[in-house]
Amino acid sequence: MNALNRGLTVVENVLAAGALAAAALIAIVAVILRSGFGVFLFWSEEAIIYLIIFSTFFGAVITLRAQEHVNVDVIATFLGKRGKQVMALVALVVTLIYLGVVGYFAWLLLFEPFSSSTSTPAIGIPLWVVESAVPIGFTLMFLRAIELLVRVWRHGVEEGDLLEAEAEAIGLDIEDLNRVRQERPEDGKGTGRSDS
Amino acid sequence: MTEATIALIVMLLLLLVSSAPIAVALGLTSLVYFYYFTTIPLTQIPERLFNSLNTFPLMAIPFFVLAANIMSRGGISRRLTDASNAVVGQFRGGLAMTAVLSCMFFAAISGSSPATVVAVGTLLIPAMIRSGYPREFSTGIIATSGSLGILLPPSIPLIVYGIATEQSIGDLFIAGILPGILAGLMLLVLVIFISRRRAYGTGEHQIVMTTKQKVQAFRDAGLSLVLPFLVLGGIYGGLFTPTEAAAVAVFYALIVALVFYREITVKDLGAILLGSAKTSAMIMFIIANGILFTFVLTSERIPGQITETLTGMNLSLFTFLLLVNLLLLLVGAFMETSSAILIIAPILLPIGMELGINPIHLGIIMVMNLEIGMVTPPFGLNLFVASGLSGMSVLQVAKAALPSALVLLAGLFVVTYVPFFSLALLGGG
To answer: What is the predicted ipTM?
Structure first.
């Protein structure tokens, strides 16, 4: 189960980041070719869109895994540990209903005659191939949401540190942050250290 | 109001309050509407989610997010603070002015005001405290200064507004410039005034730079400050579409970070790509569900009904704008910027048009309001980040940020009632 979890994590990460990288690369090459050499890559827009759609639905799985989908947590801040756990469970059940129902219909959509008989205008791959981002993404999100539900049910809500998440996103170390917190007006006199 | 309208509103509010992700609240409300009030087959929902992302202009968002992440990780914060310090460092209150300027620029390039608070705050809060500024003042000014840099291009909330209301993204970028600069100037005046009056920044650690260091600082920061001009010039000069400009921004950011600044290597790109994919997916997933929800709103004619009700009340332009600001400030204090735009813009736009408000101007008002919500208690994100950073409680930070937040409110008032600031550079106003 753990090996499966780790494997799935790697696949999600590689697909979401890889699709974004590929889309950015195609976009850069297409702009250079068009504005520098007057060459149009007729398939580039379509390829970029589909890659980003894949990156979005796989990325949404990672965001869910990390519990970083934005929400309105007005009430939870006023609740105790137990209350927070109940709120989180309610939110997860709501999420599961949405993911389950839409995911189910997304699979149905894939098997509709229209999806297999239509091809994308520029590249000419069958529509169901690019549409598969939706059912696959929703199914993975559904599995991750169940995993979260079990975790919250057993262990309650883990308090995420907003500051540390932001710092990580811009590549700062936790030690740097701690230094700020410990800064006292009189500290500077001895060290003469300048940060800027 | 019909039964469906009431059901929709109640359901959306309940789901939002349940602390479910905003994207889920929007999507599930639409799902229930499709199921109970229409005969549309439910396979339309995943199809619409797919199709709402299936447009080229939207692709600007992941690319701008990626460019911003490369720049933020690539070491712009230190270079921007150095250059700002080179300009204003020698004046009384120089370090506080440095903080305001660095925050504006960092927010413009990174597109995230909480990230600005962390990046600039980590560098400048210790330096400010050592130079004799109180911790409260230093933290407060950094918590607010990042917020309105978001108006400067490339601005993701403005792209989201452009897509939600079918306005030109290039025009919105241009319109954001003067209000962004105005807010920055007002904050500068405030910190100069306070620093002089209370004799802040007289500590012995005021940083003095030699001419050589200054030239170096300008050259370094100049490389990153080119980015907004490149984007704006490219779009407005007709060279690129906004999405192409975003791709160019990624390319440019890579060159600056890997070749000139060299604080990251190719090996770091994996982590940057993963972080960007996460952020962009979060925004795009909300957009997909938001567009689905907008379809529900319009098929229920909700924006039309609200417009009729309000025009029936004979609201003056002044009162309408005042109500809009109050509503948005409230929403901004509770909800993330892009989600709020997606839900509210389609409702406000038709009313605004009816009253003769320029849609671009309305977009600027919306983004300004929602960004001020970032420094408004109880849930302003910047307050939480600044509180974690400085070790002060959220309430203390909110109190410390109050003077500068009031200045931003005054700026908002001016921009709201004087369309000149939003429209002058577009040749209107």
So the answer is: 0.87
